[in-house]
Amino acid sequence: MKFYEKLQKRRKEKGLSQEMLAEMLDVSRQAVSKWESGQSYPEMDKLIALSEIFGVTIDSLIKDGESLQDNKAQQTHSPAAPHPFFRSYEYKSKRTLFGLPLVHIHIGWGLKKAKGIIAIGNLARGFVSFGLLSAGFLSFGMLSAGLIGIGALCFGLLLAVGSVSVGTFAVGAVAVGIFALGAVAIGMFSHGAVAVATHIAIGSHAYGHIAIGREVAEGARTFIDTSHNFSAINAAEVRAAISEEFPNLWNWIVRLVMIPFR
């Protein structure tokens, strides 16, 4: 019995379709079909995986004929197919844009890469990407990077939102950016429980050139808020201090900084 005949026989004995076996091996169904028709031959790592799935030796698969020992081994010890959780799934749309599939999904055990306009995978890259590691214009993931990044640890050229975030506008437990908002905020303009800024810092503990704090304020110009909601801060005095210290600051930035005092 030839290899391709054994492969088809073993697969059917296991009650597996070509699609199911392909998922277990992280290959396409077409690859399995070519193996079973004798058009191509699997690589060594796939042969090893096949021997484990079928509970036989590699020799019994690739050599002509079939040994009695392997038949007995299969009857006495036939390991179950891998749990579905460990299988991989991949979908790639036929429609493309700029040479990329509109949708590419590649998930499963291990480092599964997805690249498309919309990419979903363990490692995803796309205009919109979702993954453990993701990069794109709009990126969501445990570790994400993009123009807009959202994740546990994220880098956003424009906006970053996450536990630890770095970006022009950064929001997070720890936020680092030109405009930073977080429990610990570090930037040019910072607002947080602990705010550190080169220009204006606002928070319970504020450290900056202009520092506005509820408990601590340290800087060249300082304001202490005794009301705990900034109602005790004179907004006109803050605006005047900003104008004196940073006369060339854009008006929209001044308006943004002054939001807590309205």
Textual characterization of the structure:
There is one protein chain. The protein is an alpha/beta fold. It has 3 domains: 3-86, 434 Repressor (Amino-terminal Domain), CATH 1.10.260; 89-134, no CATH class; 152-261, no CATH class. Helices cover 27% and strands 46% of the residues. The strands form 2 sheets. It has a 5-stranded mixed β-sheet. Strand 2 (96-97) and strand 3 form a beta hairpin. Helix 2 crosses helix 3 (29-36). The protein starts with a helix and ends in a 5-residue tail after the last helix. The model is unreliable at 67-86 (pLDDT under 50).
Brief characterization of the structure:
The protein has helices at 3-13, 18-25, 29-36, 44-54, 58-62, 68-76, 235-245, 251-257, and strands spanning 89-92, 96-97, 100-101, 103-107, 113-207, 210-218, 221-224. The protein is α/β, with parallel strands linked by helices and 262 residues long. The strands form two sheets. It has a five-stranded mixed beta sheet. Strands 2-3 form a two-stranded antiparallel sheet.
- Structural class of the secondary elements? alpha/beta
Described by the principal axes of the CA atoms, the overall outline is rod-shaped
Strand content: over 45%
Compute the average pLDDT: 85
Order of strands, main sheet, comes to 1-4-5-6-7
Number of strands: 7
The biggest sheet, with number of strands, parallel, antiparallel or mixed sense and barrel status, is:
5 strands, mixed
How many individual domains? 3
| Helix residue percentage | 25-40%
Instruction: Note poorly predicted spans.
Output: 67-86
Number of contiguous helices: 8
Alpha-carbon distance between the termini? 84 Å
- Write the H/E string, N to C: HHHHHHEEEEEEEHH
Rg, alpha carbons: 30 Å
